[in-house]
Every structure is written in structure tokens, then in C-alpha cells.
């Protein structure tokens, strides 16, 4: 396994930028996810790393070697696709060994590696079955084994779980992650599924229209989004415009927005006086007997939301509502189904570190 360095990779189709100056590093054994909506350039980027697309500009290094212009066979990567791309007329063993045979690896070596990898992915006893006799999850394991057996420096995954049903997707997700950790596989993993990205990755790169929107650990991406795009794409978020003023204590701010006035802690400074802010529904805490507004208004960090809709989600109940005459609809979360029969007004307290500063509000927007 080796480190991968992607440096200012750009790819255009006509005058359309599918990837624009993309730079990142995947360290040896690191699991890096390219996350973004359909069409944002994930597959294009992966194909450039694998050598199936030539970039217009930029460089790719694997280990100490520059591979930017090498053919796929000459760079030691392996690709694991969504459609598995198993050969229907070859049994499990032959499918797994296909790449080795092409590379004319000695039969004895093939056998040795096959035995090991079959054990690793848990396919013992299935060696002679044809792909059509396997479940979706097993087929995915064959595809993974076929990638691992070539002992690649980097494994590239393109939405490998999207053909599996929800339950299986979760269990295979943990299997892949387990193998990746155990064998220290440098992995570049493409998905549009944010929960998959959060659960599996060491590093997430959020892509938007061919550019990197934000890069960081899953916790950073989830808890410290820096743009509306990321806040909205990862999990549920409430996003509004706000006016921000520095408070007297370091890293504290007064934030005024449609929801009310808040005293906020943030170690990231706002980029302007008027910015978009966001918070997760779970950071607004329902206070059953909330404070009554005094003459000068609500105390800071408390607010009332008129709940218009409740949805029971099992472990929590979700609510949607507005603040007074406000235009925005806010999403809130209750640990237990609230008793709101008297009035739909629910009081909430926002924790002081729940508000994140996003991009500045542009004049006229
Ligand atoms: N061979 C191609 N020719 C022209 N446009 C392409 C080609 N491949 C991809 N694109 C375009 O580039 C954009 C990114 O595609 P892709 O990398 O497949 O996105 P993703 O994998 O994130 O869904 C899309 O708008 C797609 O239509
Ligand atoms: Mg794709």
C-alpha cells in the first residue's frame, strides 16, 4: 500500500469542467471518501486516478512515483465497481484470479494468494459457485477479493454498495471497513450516501460541481460545515441569514437571526458581519416549561417555535415549524413525543456551540 497524492487535477469535457483543480492526499492505509451528489465529478476523478481518463492538467503520485500519464496496467491500482462487473461464465475462483492470470503470475502464486484472500473476505466454500448462485453481498465480496488479490497500492471504489438493499448495505459497509483497517488498504471510496461516508471514512472530501467544497474528518464535516452546500448535503440542517457581532469574551459572538438572539461560541470566525448560519435539529433542546418573554424580549439562546407538523421517527420525533411570523421552516427534534395539545408553541434552548458560521450573505441575495 502507498500514499496517493492528487495535485490540481483538472478534467474538461468540451467547455464543461468535470473536475477543477482538485488536490488532496490519501496517506498509506487511509480511507478517503469522495462524497457529493450525482454528476459532481466523483467517477471522473476516480477514473483519472485509475488511469481510465487522462486529466487536462495536474499530477497524480502513488508512493514516490508519478503515474499521471501511465496506462491503468502500469499503475498499481485496483477498481471495485457498483455493478461488480463479475464474469458470469467464470466461477468465484476464476473471477478472483482473473487479473493475476492476465499479468501472467505463476499458478502456484495465484493459488497461494487466492487461498489467503478467500479467507480474508469470508468466501470459503464458495470457490466453485458461479456469480448467479451468489447473493448480492457475496458478489460484492468477490469483487473486493478480485481487487485485493492484485495487492494494489490503492483500491478505488465506485459506489460499490449502491446495488444492495438497505440492510445488506450496512453490514457490507462494516465488512469493507474492517478489511480496509485490518490490511491497511489505502482506499478512495466514491459515494453519494452521506451516512456511508460518515460511518466509513478517515477523511471526507465533499465535491460540488467539480470542485472541492470542504475536506476533513467526518466529525468536522458533520459538526463544522463551512458552507450551505455542505450543511445541507450532510444530515439535516437549519440554515438562515444572520447578523453577527463580536462579544466581549474571546470566540463569543452575538447572533441575531429569524429564530431569535443567541450568544454563540465558535472558534472559527465569521467571514462577514452578515453570514448564513446553520445548526442541527438535535442541538435545539426542547424545554417543556420554557421562560416567558419579558418586556425586552426572550432571554438569549431561547426561542419559541410554532410546531406545524410532527413526524414519529422511532427513536425520536421530528417537528417542523416557524418562529412567529417568520418565513423559514425549522426542523427540530424531540427525544420523546411532546405533549403539545394545549398550544403548538414549543420552547427550545440552543446550546452555545451549536451555531456554525457559513458563507457571507451576498448583497442582493
Ligand atoms: N465522457 C464524458 N463526456 C462528457 N461528459 C461527461 C463524460 N463523463 C462524465 N461527464 C459529465 O461530467 C460530470 C461528472 O460526471 P461523473 O464524474 O460521472 O459524476 P458522478 O460520478 O459524481 O455522478 C457529469 O455532468 C457528466 O455528465
Ligand atoms: Mg459516478
UniProtKB/TrEMBL annotation:
Any one Gene Ontology molecular-function term assigned to this protein's record: ATP binding
Residues forming coiled coils: none
Pfam families xref list: ABC_tran
Keywords in alphabetical order: ATP-binding, Nucleotide-binding, Transport
ABC transporter domain: residues covered: 4-234
Name listed for the protein in its UniProt record: ABC transporter ATP-binding protein
